[in-house]
User: Fold this.
Amino acid sequence: MSFKELVFSGVQPTGNLHLGNYLGAIKRFVELQNNHDCIYCVVDMHAITVPIAVWGGPEGLTRATREVTAAFIASGIDPKKHIVFNQSQVHEHAELAWVFNCVARIGWLNRMTQFKEKAGKDRENASVGLYAYPNLMAADILVYRATHVPVGEDQKQHLELARDIAQKFNNDFSESIAARGFGDMFFPLPEPIIQGPATRIMSLRDGSKKMSKSEPSDYSRINLTDDADAIAQKIRKAKTDPEPLPSEEKGLEPRPEADNLVGIYAALSDTTKADVLREFGGAQFSNFKSALVDLAVAALGPIGGEMKRLVQDHAYIDAVLADGSQRASAIAGKTMKAVKEIVGFVGR
Ligand code: AQP
Assistant:
């Protein structure tokens, strides 16, 4: 069976949206909307899988949900042409996730590195939701029978799991799927889109750690709402080494901080690391950082400004989410009705 191309991706409303989220995900969302149908989701049910102090409680969640929505729109996503909504408003995500809890194997989830990192040493005290997170993520994608998923490198393993779940569902219920006229596959095997020079942006303080919302030091990341002064200060203070920039990409291999800044420059200017090194090879970091500050301020300044304006307009943002949720429900409802029939749940 061939599936219509459909893009789905999500961002968690957990505060501090940063340059990694933008370059690894949101900027790609914007590019894809020109030649695909896209569904972009604020995954608020994923946000509550970590301790309440981390996700910020009810007020923090509401604020962050509006902020991610504002970031989508300020970055250029068109919520009229595509679908922008928040996960909790389309109950089929949770329903399909339950079915997937019964399809996925514990051994599969035990291999998920994100759970190990987020649960840390206190694994016994992690929420069940954090453990089952990848099953819900598979449901987010497959409830729309989406075929393509733009994500950062850190989500690759979860995408592989989503493919395994889709495949196992298709196998386990193959007769029932065929009997209902869906051919040999009910779910597509969704493909990750992980491309370009910015699939894994690293912390500005430590080139071995991913830039992350939850890192305590604000100097480790550039937030989308940072003003020009903050962006400049963070880039100037970013950790580097004493050598000038190399002229070829292989010269970046043993230099994670230099590699990271060159990757950021390449992604912001829509070029490659090789192009950046052709221009800046042999330059001192002070010169390169000045150019990077100008570029980052020019690219992020307007987005941050528009985000701050939009986020104040609760009526507009909430209307975008309500409209998107309604349109998403129409698709998800059909999938879930078919899934219930395939599994054998009796109903109308
Ligand atoms: N550093 C990064 N580089 C490139 N892409 C990144 N993404 C996240 N960090 C980077 C991508 O952004 C999208 C949304 O991420 P998320 O909100 O679902 O959660 P996350 O991956 O857990 O993001 P954080 O910032 O790292 O949050 P915490 O600190 O809570 O773990 C995804 O496509 C992700 O790949």
